[in-house]
TrEMBL record:
Domain NR LBD: 221-432
Domain Nuclear receptor: 10-85
Gene Ontology BP terms: hormone-mediated signaling pathway; tissue development
Record's subcellular location: Nucleus
Keywords associated with the record: DNA-binding, Metal-binding, Nucleus, Receptor, Transcription, Transcription regulation, Zinc, Zinc-finger
Family matches, as CDD domains: NR_DBD_Lrh-1_like
Protein's UniProt name: Nuclear receptor subfamily 5, group A, member 5
Length: 432
DNA sequence: TCCTCAGGGCCAATC
DNA sequence: GATTGGCCCTGAGGA
């Protein structure tokens, strides 16, 4: 058999969904995207998108927009530095160990999947089984006895990445290669794109008086985010077949999974965040990923949720249903979160305030950083912007600024409980 | 020493 | 003429 048709080729390409032919430039992709990525980097291509820079990417439409295709290649983790500048053929590159680890992870995941299928068949509680699997840690193949805060440097995998460990993996792996490649082809391509060029650099828009407006403008479109999460769920369901439907908890976990990727992308695309060194970016993200996730969930509930219902993309799930199905810890978490949602609703929590809180959580100077000053200054600027915004838009509610800041410790507390819960599940599943 | 597999190149097909 | 994508060649590293 040709090596391009190994068992792993059963997987679909994270860029276009076509059949995977092997590891190419950092992860499993199809032959077509491999070639496209290679040509783009070798020829230093800079494409432009005639639409909204969010063109659909699948086997039939991948040729329509090279800009979106290349962006997707980068987003899923293809590494420009794996394209050889000297064009030397054959041999191995320095990603060999990464590919080996990734294979091990996939093997372990397959083992877990098999075990869980057997367990599920013997258990009366399908919910419990599915919920343990979908919290995702066991199949990540990471050390199970380490401290929760232990930093893991595992391979980047757009499809398998889940929850906390995967977050560390995502942050670590995505950044490791960039940090060592100061003159990466990726940077060249983006920087020389006339559509992205700015005489003052990427930070220029934040030198304007409308600091908060600049922050909001750089935010991802909410409907596109929802569409991404939804299409991911649909893909997942399509892969499972009609007799193996995702349950409520599975859906929640999958959504959290996708949301995490969205949040990492949000941070990485932020002009303020890009000003930091890669090492600092990693430290900040690893420090606050769960808070960002909780905050994102809260905002969604405040904006779209209804009384007694949990908003999940396009479906409303009764909170009481989740609490009745979940264990003590999880139902407690859901209740605490819903309490906080009620408080934020009472404050008329809006999108600009949500964005400010996200930046305040991200730019947290508590953790050890090289450029603490920049992080502190950003936090102060966002603080001032939030204060100014609440003063202008809620003149009758003098203390709104203070009330919003008081919610952050609660977010932190819930996020720590979420992490703790996930690690418990991880250990529980391992022992079983 | 042989085998593996992820690089690059080639070229017919397609745009 | 440019781009795509499937197939083949190459060669470092592991067994």
């Amino acid at each position: 058999l040709n090596h391009r048709h190994r068992p792993e080729s059963e997987e679909s390409c994270p860029v276009c969904g076509d059949r995977v032919s092997g590891y190419h430039y950092g992860l499993l992709t199809c032959e077509s995207c491999k070639g496209f990525f290679k040509r783009s980097v070798q020829n230093n291509k800079h494409y432009t998108c005639t639409e909204q820079q969010s063109c659909p990417m699948n086997r039939t439409q991948r040729k329509r927009c090279p800009y979106c295709r290349f962006q997707k290649c980068l987003a899923v983790g293809m590494k420009t530095e794996a394209v050889r500048a000297d064009r030397m053929r054959g041999g191995r590159n320095r990603f060999g160990p990464l590919y080996r680890r990734d294979r091990q992870i996939k093997l372990q995941r397959a083992d877990y999947q098999t075990n869980l299928s057997l367990n599920a068949a013997m258990s009366s509680s399908a919910f419990q089984q599915c919920h343990m699997y979908n919290t995702g840690m066991p199949h990540s193949g990471l050390p199970l006895t380490g401290h929760p805060q232990e930093k893991c440097h595992m391979s980047f995998d757009y499809h398998t990445a889940s929850t906390s460990h995967a977050m560390h993996r995502t942050v670590s792996e995505t950044y490791t290669t960039r940090s060592t490649q100061a003159s990466s082809s990726n940077a060249n391509i983006v920087d020389c794109d006339p559509d992205h060029a700015s005489p003052l650099g990427p930070f220029s828009s934040f030198l304007t008086p409308n600091f908060l407006d600049a922050l909001i403008e750089s935010e991802q479109d909410e409907s596109q985010l929802c569409a991404k999460v939804l299409s991911s769920l649909q893909r997942e369901q399509a892969n499972r077949g009609k007799h193996d439907c995702l349950n409520t908890f599975s859906i929640m976990c999958k959504m959290a999974d996708q949301t995490l990727f969205g949040l990492v992308e949000w941070a990485r695309n932020s002009a303020l965040f890009k000003e930091l060194k890669v090492e600092d970016q990693m430290v900040l993200l690893q420090n606050c990923w769960s808070e960002l996730l909780v905050l994102d969930h809260l905002y969604r509930q405040v904006t779209y949720g209804k009384e007694g219902l949990l908003f999940l993309t396009q479906a409303q799930i009764e909170v009481s249903t989740i609490i009745s199905q979940a264990g003590v810890t999880l139902s407690g978490l859901v209740s605490r979160t819903q309490d906080l949602v009620a408080k934020l609703k009472a404050l008329y929590f809006d999108r600009k305030e949500f964005v400010c809180l996200k930046y305040l959580v991200l730019f947290n100077p508590v953790v050890p950083l090289e450029d603490v000053l920049m992080v502190e200054q950003t936090q102060e600027r966002v603080n001032r912007a939030l204060m100014e915004h609440t003063r202008q838009t809620h003149a009758g509610h003098a203390d709104k600024f203070g009330q919003l800041l008081l919610r952050l410790p609660e977010v932190r507390s819930i996020s720590l409980q979420v992490e703790e819960y996930l690690y418990q599940q991880m250990l529980h599943t391992k022992h079983n």
